[in-house]
Write a structure and sequence with these properties.
Layout (H helix, E strand, L loop, with lengths): L2 H14 L14 E5 L4 E5 L14 H15 L7 E5 L5 H13 L5 E5 L8 H9 L4 E6 L10 H9 L10 E7 L7 H10 L3 H4 L1 H8 L3 E5 L4 H15 L5 H15 L4 H15 L5
Parallel strand pairs: 1-4, 3-6, 3-7, 4-5, 5-6
Antiparallel strand pairs: 1-2
């Protein structure tokens, strides 16, 4: 094959290859979402979040994550954090609320959301964040791994960083319903069928050990549930007789078979609509 033919092949391959990601304008928005095929960081100018003061019943987790993130925002080292536990109790809301609170005084603190399905591309994302003159909370919501899922290997690039180390300007926050990021029955199944049960799932289970902070979220009781609703109503100006509010709130959670911050918010949305009140 002559050089002319080789040059034509090279030109064709170059046209087929995706263009490298241009350096994002991180001053354009407070938050970004990472997408692949092609790689890009989409700016999010209005983040869907609630004020930190509206998150009730999670004071210890709130204060711990806020302090950790404040240290990071001011240039100090901070721990990666795993927020795990009951559904609808404010795990992802807390991450976004903490960012929003601190971003007022620390404009270079950016939130970057990474989907679990795109974890395999995290090394490419880190390469872009590493060289940026900003500090980043890399956030993955609802993180978990199944039996044959290999994405957990990519997660190590975030938590440990390999030979380069995790970028100094990146901290990783994840939420999960599972403390060890994989179902308990899968852990037990692998242990029971392994030649060496103590090492069968050590690699996967040890992922959670790589988070410096474990923040647990537990189902709320009725008093906490009602306190959440009361806080929302006061914040958004929804005025209802106290006895009526209590009765309707209890009936609402009974029809859903659960109490949580999410259920409380859904009730307030319904109540505000019926009361003719616009809420954020």
């Amino acid at each position: 094959m002559d050089n002319q033919a080789l040059n034509r092949i090279a030109d064709a391959l170059e046209r087929m290859a995706p263009a490298p990601l241009a350096a994002p304008d991180f001053g354009a928005a407070p938050a970004y979402v990472w997408h692949v095929e092609p790689d890009r960081l989409e700016p999010v100018t209005q983040v869907n979040r609630v004020d930190l003061d509206l998150l009730v019943g999670i004071n210890r987790s709130r204060d711990t994550l806020l302090d950790n993130t404040r240290r990071f925002a001011t240039g100090f080292k901070a721990n990666n954090a795993l927020l795990w536990g009951a559904r609808g109790m404010g795990k992802s809301s807390l991450v976004k609320a903490v960012h929003g609170t601190l971003q007022v005084d620390h404009q270079d603190l950016k939130l970057v959301e990474l989907q679990r399905e795109d974890m395999g591309s995290v090394a490419r994302l880190l390469n872009h964040l590493r060289v940026a003159p900003h500090r980043f909370i890399l956030f993955c919501d609802d993180l978990s791994f199944s039996h044959d899922d290999q994405h957990y290997k990519s997660l190590k690039a975030v938590l440990d960083g390999g030979i380069e180390g995790r970028p100094e300007n990146v901290v990783f926050y994840a939420t999960s319903n599972r403390r060890h990021l994989m179902p308990r029955d899968m852990i037990e199944n692998e242990r029971s069928s392994a030649i060496n049960p103590s090492e069968a799932v050590e690699e996967k289970v040890s992922l959670s050990d790589r988070f410096g902070l474990w923040l647990g979220f537990h189902p709320c009781d009725q008093d906490e549930y009602l306190a959440m609703i009361d806080r929302y109503c006061k914040a958004y100006g929804v005025k209802v007789d106290a006895d009526t509010l209590r009765a309707e709130a209890i009936e609402w959670q009974a029809t859903r078979g659960a109490r949580s911050g999410r259920v409380a918010w859904q009730f307030v949305v319904d109540l505000a609509g019926r009361s003719g009140v616009h809420i954020g």
